Amino acid sequence: MSGDPFEQRDYSGHRFRDLQLGGADLHGLRFEDCRFEHCDFSGATLRDCRFRDCEFADCNLSLARFAGSQVDARFVDSKLVGIDWTQAWWPTVRLHGTLAFERCALNDSSFFGLSLRELQVLECRAHEVDFTEADLEDADFRHSDLHGAIFRRSRLARADFREAVNYRIDLFLNDIKHAKFALPEAVALLHGLDIELSE
């Protein structure tokens, strides 16, 4: 699908349900305080769009491209696999806490080098996600599965990893000052140290 089904450019306070926009090419749309439910944006290109204070619930956005789009949104029970978030537009002065994921699939996505303080990744499956060089201070990863996620030169000060599982964070390559961890998963922080662990 390549057409644009929207009749206007600006929407505020709208509720959209069951949109089938897989593979669509959407350009220059602006959404404020809108809610999307059971919508399919898989493989869609969202070019120079703006989502402000929006929520996506039970949506599929896998392989979507947010080319130059501003994304200030909360995603719940949604599939967002294979998204390169670096393609979106991120303002130089960024408000904190404007991107949140809850019970979502984020596998194989990239947040490389982004400033995402107070990012929320709650109860998510985030396998093989690239957080290299990202500013994730005060981020919340509680109850998420971070198998294969890459943290390299990442800023994780005060980030919350309690009840998160399968993470591998190198103490020497990342800033984890005052980050929160819980046993037994926190033992993973000792991997890579030249020490011997005994039970």
TrEMBL record:
InterPro entries: 5peptide_repeat (IPR001646), PA_immunity-related (IPR052949). PANTHER family: ANTIBIOTIC RESISTANCE PROTEIN MCBG, PENTAPEPTIDE REPEAT-CONTAINING PROTEIN. This is Uncharacterized protein YjbI, contains pentapeptide repeats. It comes from Dyella marensis.
